[in-house]
Amino acid sequence: QMKLLPFNANRLVDGGFSISLAYSSILLSRGYFACTPIAPSLAVDLQLLELVKTLFVHITPNTTAWCETLEVFLAGRRYHLTTKDNLRRRFGNAYHWYSVLFMSADDHLSNLIGTHRPLPPSSTEGPTRPSDYLRSRCTICFGLDDWRKSRTLNLKPDVHTCIDACFTQQRSSDQCGGGPDPPNPVRSVFLSDDEVTSMEVHVRSCRGRPLDRGHKRKRPAATEEEGDDYEDGMRVPISVLDGCGDSFLAADEKHKKASTQFFADTGVMAMLCRHDRVLWLANMTSAGEKQHYALALIKKLFDNLPTDMTVGLLYDIG
């Protein structure tokens, strides 16, 4: 018999029909979502799934902790599951595909609205507002239709973004965990590998002959006879700039911050708006913080903006 997990869950109840006769459409009509499309052994109340989805918006998603809490809750009411992790895997699968269904329905509704939206007047000047993707990421930054009217005479940027890298988010290169990923049609803020690789090739072509391995380009040191001097256009001595640059390991892209031997992805570089909303992420596969990751994020941003929109970019080693 198939088990049902109702919204007021104090036990798993019998579904009333055998696993072989349980179809997803029948369960949906009764307000339940199956853990598998064919012969499911568990179906979860849609209200309960919506509660968990809303909960995971405000805390870090963790179906393992939630299912363990539910198992303890059921055990306290003298209902014990047959095996360990019996609930976690089935509930996790139901929750995942419920989220996929929710996002697919949302995308379908957005496409319907887009097809009935009046087309803008023909123009060769390109888009007049940020892309729908950016408008969905942060309405405050990118949602104004009359953003040109809000410009001031002091030439402030129209939008502000920031970029930084984190080398604590890594993915193991263990071959046992490799192989193709299962179908996972969910939205992603990550740049594709092709976009990052294309920018890497472009940066290498612009640089021409690469520097020797381990060599760091520096300004010629000022001799005692010449004395210190100031950087062109700045009121800062060259010696101060050199000392500042040498003190920042992040400015040296050849400095190894993560092992490529043990990690396939060594870190993540993120672009956020001024309201801390993630715009895009880029997986880093090199040992250091190379330039092309930031440039790939910047290119992606400008591809989704009008050509006359100005951007203020914050980067700690820029």
UniProtKB/TrEMBL annotation:
The record's region (Disordered) falls at 209-230
The protein in question is named CxC1-like cysteine cluster associated with KDZ transposases domain-containing protein
Q: Which InterPro entries match?
A: KDZ (IPR040521)
Species of the source: Suillus luteus UH-Slu-Lm8-n1
